[in-house]
Specification:
Blueprint: H1 2-47, E1 52-59, E2 65-71, E3 75-81, H2 92-100, H3 103-113, H4 117-120, E4 124-127, E5 133-140, H5 143-201, H6 208-244, H7 248-258, H8 261-281, H9 289-313, H10 319-326, H11 333-406, E6 416-419, H12 432-467
Antiparallel strand pairs: 1-5, 1-6, 2-3, 4-5
């Protein structure tokens, strides 16, 4: 038994020596690992240049522009630009996100800042959900440089968008010019056809038929009024004729005789001679020289009067007929006044008859012209309708082109700066607190790992020693 104890002592001494060496090795390894970890962290903090981040936001208005134009007697045209967020298939902010990170835009911004594009870097763009807002940020070595770089990117974005809008308007304008030219040519052709038909047909406007119909109705009304007036004059004329005891042919002969100055002078001479003879016969007998002389004068005036009446009436006239026409059964101013009224009524009656005939002929001519114009009206209306359609198309096309030129935000919507680039008051990286915290956590993890590794081997050795033969002691 003494030999067993003696033989086990060297083994225990050897085991203690190995444990010390292994423990020292793990300690050294842990120290080296922590020194390297903390050295790298401190070196990172000292050598890494600071980064300051400037942030800004931009918004895209969502309301579309709408314009309506009323064209007198032609119709209505409208032009509108839909909201950029009206559809669900595309978000225009995604296009702007691509443009913001495109090298051509960044090159413009870097050139304006007089720095290389690699130093400018790319901005980070975030699209805020359920809004039209874009949040952006970019970093630089100093706060002022970060803010200036952000401002340069905004300016470059606006410049790039304006250039794209101008190119889009130019390309769209080429197609618009072709469309406008075609519409103008169609309008000119329609106008020439209408003008040629106006010249050949005598129909100058669509209202001409209506105006002609109105004129015919006015003339018919005038004719009816004139006919009524003629009947009234004829009735009055007949009454006066009956009052004078003259028939219509006798009235006609009387008008002829009373219209002749020579006959009237002969009738006057006969009347004066007859009056003088009557006065002389009251004083003297028929053989008295004065009576004989006056009777000869009466006879001569009567003969001249009858002769002139025969020439005017172109027929044989008896003295009694002349007396009936000129003086009638009675004499005096009353009969002369009635005869004068009869002459005036006859003049009015003849004038009414002539006007009535003239109106009838005019109405007949206008009705023939109306019938001709009505047939031409159909063709005229068709040609005028073609002109109106061509005018409407041309005016609508021109209005839409002009409105489209004024609306430059159709393809590339308007974007505005919601919040200006900020001037950061502290650097974003490196952050000592974060670095130290991360380094500390790493140091803890490394140390814990080494300790667990040492415990694992120590436990294995203890388990192996317990399985070996026990030492007997007496």
């Amino acid at each position: 038994m003494t030999e067993s104890i003696t033989s086990g002592l060297p083994n225990l001494a050897k085991l203690g020596k190995n444990s010390f060496l292994r423990y020292s090795r793990y300690i050294i390894l842990g120290v080296v690992a922590n020194v390297l970890l903390w050295g790298a962290a401190i070196s990172y903090l000292k050598k890494t240049p600071p980064v300051y981040i400037s942030k800004w936001a931009m918004i895209m208005p969502g309301n579309g522009l709408g314009v309506n134009v009323n064209l007198a007697d032609l119709g209505q045209t409208s032009a509108s630009s839909s909201s950029p967020f009206g559809g669900t298939s595309m978000d225009p902010r995604a296009n702007y996100q691509f443009i913001l990170t495109d090298e051509s835009l960044l090159e413009i911004a870097a050139t304006s800042q007089k720095i290389p594009i690699s130093k400018l870097g790319k901005p980070k763009v975030k699209l805020v959900d359920n809004t039209s807002i874009m949040e952006m940020e970019i970093g630089a070595r100093t706060p002022e440089e970060a803010r200036d770089n952000a401002t340069a990117i905004i300016t470059a974005l606006q410049s790039r968008l304006n250039m794209l809008r101008a190119e889009e308007i130019d390309k769209r304008g080429e197609n618009n010019d072709v469309t406008l030219k075609e519409a103008r040519e169609k309008l000119q052709i329609a106008q020439k056809r209408l003008s040629a038909y106006k010249a050949s047909s005598g129909l100058s406007s669509s209202n001409q038929v209506g105006e002609l119909s109105t004129n015919i109705e006015i003339l018919r009304k005038q004719k009816a009024e004139l006919s009524a007036q003629k009947e009234l004059i004829s009735s009055r004329f007949q009454q006066l004729s009956d009052s004078l005891g003259l028939t219509v042919p006798e009235v006609s002969d009387a008008f002829i005789l009373h219209a002749d100055r020579q006959f009237l002078q002969n009738a006057k001479d006969y009347s004066e001679a007859n009056t003088s003879l009557t006065v002389l016969l009251a004083k003297w007998d028929v053989n008295h020289p004065l009576v004989v002389k006056e009777a000869a004068r009466q006879k001569s005036a009567q003969t001249a009067m009858i002769s002139r009446a025969g020439e005017l009436l172109r027929k044989e006239v008896k003295p009694s007929y002349i007396d009936h026409l000129v003086l009638g059964d009675s004499s005096g101013s009353s009969r002369e006044n009635l005869f004068r009224d009869l002459i005036a009524l006859d003049s009015d009656r003849q004038g009414a008859i002539a006007q009535n005939q003239a109106l009838e002929e005019q109405i007949f001519q206008l009705e023939d012209r109306l019938q001709s114009l009505v047939q031409k009206q159909v063709v005229f209306d068709n040609l005028q309708r073609e002109v109106q359609i061509a005018e409407a198309v041309f005016a609508s096309t021109l209005a839409k082109i002009n409105l489209a030129k004024s609306d430059i935000f159709t393809a590339y919507p308007l974007i505005q700066v919601l919040s200006k680039p900020s001037l950061p008051d502290k650097k974003s990286s490196p952050q000592p607190t974060v670095v130290f915290l991360g380094t500390g956590i790493g140091s803890i993890l490394v140390t814990t790992g080494l300790v667990m590794l040492w415990w694992r081997k120590e436990i294995k050795q203890k388990v192996g020693l317990g399985k070996s033969k026990p030492v007997e002691v007496i």
